[in-house]
């Protein structure tokens, strides 16, 4: 399949400052981010990788990394958060949603490197996804996580998701929330994103 981008959403580029004053750039993913994204997942602890993929995965497969970085920005939106150290980019978090067969529903995922957890970065990324999805006409955001993933459950609860056990897979929790109707297709303002992430 030939990769085609719908339109690179430059309006999603943002610079934020975390609780300790750390400067972080949030931006949409590009195809050339494959190595950066692979390094991010490779550097996660085994437990964090298991929480993200709900499977034991030592090295993310190359075809998965291609799918994670060749984003069309119509049905699939992906963001990375990065810092710059010693003259190079380091991805410290990623977040994405993908429309399901029902185009009014999208499935989301968020992952933050352990040293950067507890700094509201996951809340901020999820708020950006929620706002973008609503602006794209998506009406429901859904996700899955392990019942043992306390951080993701707390994040989802705080963001207004309902949480219930999966009726099909033991130990998996289903996350769901309705999205606000977008005003004229506009992406949320910085103030609204801040309020959602608070």
What does this 3D model show about the protein?
The structure is a single chain. The chain has helices spanning 34-43, 46-53, 62-69, 121-135, 150-158, 190-197, and strands spanning 14-17, 23-28, 76-85, 88-99, 105-112, 140-146, 162-165, 172-178. It has 198 residues and is α+β, with helices and mostly antiparallel strands. Strands 1-2-3-4-5-6-8-7 form an 8-stranded mixed β-sheet, with helices on both faces. Helix 1 (34-43) packs across helix 3. It is globular.
Query: What's the CATH architecture name?
Result: 3-Layer(aba) Sandwich
Helix percent band: 25-40%
Helix tally equals 6
Strand order in the largest sheet: 1-2-3-4-5-6-8-7
- Note the overall shape: globular
Tally of separate domains: 1
Q: Class in CATH?
A: Alpha Beta
Order of helices and strands: EEHHHEEEHEHEEH
From the alpha carbons, calculate the radius of gyration and give it in angstroms. Answer: 16 Å
SS content category: alpha+beta
| Major sheet size, sense and barrel closure | 8 strands, mixed
Report how far apart the termini are: 40 Å
Mean pLDDT: 89
Strand content: 25-35%
Total strand count, please? 8
> What fold name stands as the CATH topology?
Aminopeptidase
| Full CATH superfamily name | Gcn5-related N-acetyltransferase (GNAT)
List the uncertain runs. none
């Amino acid at each position: 399949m030939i990769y085609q981008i719908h339109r690179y959403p430059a309006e999603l580029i943002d610079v934020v400052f975390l609780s300790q004053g750390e400067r972080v750039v949030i931006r949409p993913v590009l195809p050339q981010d494959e190595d950066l994204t692979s390094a991010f997942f490779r550097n996660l602890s085994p437990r964090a990788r298991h929480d993200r993929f709900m499977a034991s995965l030592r090295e993310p497969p190359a075809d998965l990394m291609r799918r994670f970085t060749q984003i069309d920005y119509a049905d699939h939106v992906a963001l990375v958060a990065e810092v710059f150290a010693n003259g190079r980019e380091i991805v410290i978090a990623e977040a994405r949603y993908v429309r399901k067969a029902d185009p009014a529903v999208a499935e989301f995922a968020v992952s933050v490197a352990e040293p950067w957890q507890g700094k509201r970065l996951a809340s901020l990324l999820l708020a950006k996804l929620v706002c973008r999805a609503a602006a794209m006409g998506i009406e429901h955001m859904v996700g899955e996580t392990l019942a043992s993933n306390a951080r993701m459950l707390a994040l989802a609860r705080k963001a207004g998701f309902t949480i219930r056990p999966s009726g099909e897979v033991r130990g998996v929790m289903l996350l769901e929330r309705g999205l606000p109707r977008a005003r004229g297709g506009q992406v949320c303002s910085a103030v609204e994103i801040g309020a959602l992430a608070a």
